Each structure stands twice: as structure tokens, then as C-alpha cells.
Amino acid sequence: MPLIEVTDLTKRYGSRVAVDGVSFTVDRGEIFGILGTNGAGKTTTVECLQGLRTADSGTIRVLGLDPVKQRDALRQRLGSQLQESTLPAKLKVREALELFASFYPSPADVEVLLDRLALTEHADSYFGKLSGGQKQRVSIALALIGNPEVAVLDELTTGLDPHARRDTWQLVERVRDAGVTVLLVTHFMDEAERLCDRVAIFDTGRVVATGTPSELRATTSKSTLDDAFVTLTGRD
Ligand SMILES: Nc1ncnc2c1ncn2[C@@H]1O[C@H](COP(=O)(O)OP(=O)(O)OP(=O)(O)O)[C@@H](O)[C@H]1O
Asked: How many CB atoms lie within 10 A of CB 89?
């Protein structure tokens, strides 16, 4: 059984159809990429998956749970990356992790997580004083603090330099290798090509293709996912 199952999801904001009959499945242990043009409905879809928005129609099951009706149960088993602005600048890294750990019944060990994300030496630093890459690692740590089975990472490497991006990619691979299923929302085709086992390509509220990056390259006869994406989203 797929770990995430989205069937015919539709979501409107007033008269604007943001998500228009989207279906896809994610298997346990995958890094699954949600790719798409601006305004394609990626964030709305991922918010519905987490029970943060209610769909107008369609069904969603995450770990067999309905994200809206069983939101409390799902929250214990799904980790979500916070946008950096949501942490106060005067909160220290270890304090933030300990605070978030207290929200979960069986959280990860804070010191182990600090070590895993190369944050031990910054544990007593204020969040506001960290570099972009360090902040991003803290936000990933917070997504993992509850020992989730699924982690949702949105715009993972936006604003990071090439070294920090590569470090972050390695880290996400280690998260997947530790058994966590990862849902990755990204604009970056190189990131998707490097990290994702499979991707869904969104365009104007619909999924126009799903498959492994190499399958999408093959079906479009393109040599890069970037070119395949442009073809699949009809802007070639
Ligand atoms: N709260 C809202 N109220 C009204 N319209 C919204 C709201 N949130 C999103 N939209 C609209 O719904 C559509 C889908 O937005 P969404 O944020 O889901 O797309 P996205 O693929 O995540 O975009 P981006 O890549 O630019 O972040 C867009 O046209 C957007 O303007």
C-alpha cells in the first residue's frame, strides 16, 4: 500500500482553482519530488496533505490516515520543515530542538540529531546568528525531531550557496536512508535529479507527468530534467 495516496484532489480559493484533480502516490522510503511552475498548486497540495487546508473534493490518505479528520494522529508521525522566519532570533539551537521535542510522545534524541545535522558546535548559538545553511539544517532538524515516518521539505535549498546545497542534499539522502519517506517541494531541477526517486510535475493545478527523472527524460527525448520539465509544462 502506498504511504501517501492522493486521488482527484481539488482545491479552490474563491473562483480560482488552485489544484484541479490531482492524483499521485508515494511509496514508503522514497524521496518524492513535487515540481512545478510558479502558482502550479504545489504548496496547496502539500498543505492539504498535512491537514492544514481542507480539500474541496478528492481523497487523501497519509499513512492510511485522513489528514483533516485524523490530524492529531498524523501530526505525531509527519514532520514538516518550518520556514526560517518562524523561529525567534534569540532562541538557541538546542533550546529550539528541546522545545519542539517536548511536543512529541517519542521524540528523537536532541544530541543525536544535533550531531546528525552537524549542528553540535552551534547548539548554544542564537538562531538569529546562524548562516543560511545552518538555519536550513535547524529547520530540517525540527522536521525530524518527532521521529516522523514522513518528512515534508519545502524549498529546501533556496538561498544556499553551492556547497551548502550539496551538504543539504547529502543530509536528505541520509534521512531517507534512515527510513524516512521524504516529500520534497522544489523549483530546482538539479536538486530533483540528484535527490528524487520519483517526481510529479505540476502545471496550472494539474499533474502533467509522474515518473523517475530518467523516465521523464526518456519520454520527452531530452538529456536533462530541466529540458524535460520545459517540454512537459508546454513552454518548449
Ligand atoms: N491563500 C490563498 N488565497 C487565494 N489564492 C491563493 C492562496 N494561496 C495560493 N493561492 C493561489 O493558488 C494558486 C496555487 O498556489 P500555490 O501556492 O499552491 O502554488 P505553488 O505551486 O506552491 O507556487 P510557487 O511555486 O510560486 O510557490 C496560485 O494561483 C496562487 O496565487
From this structure: 10
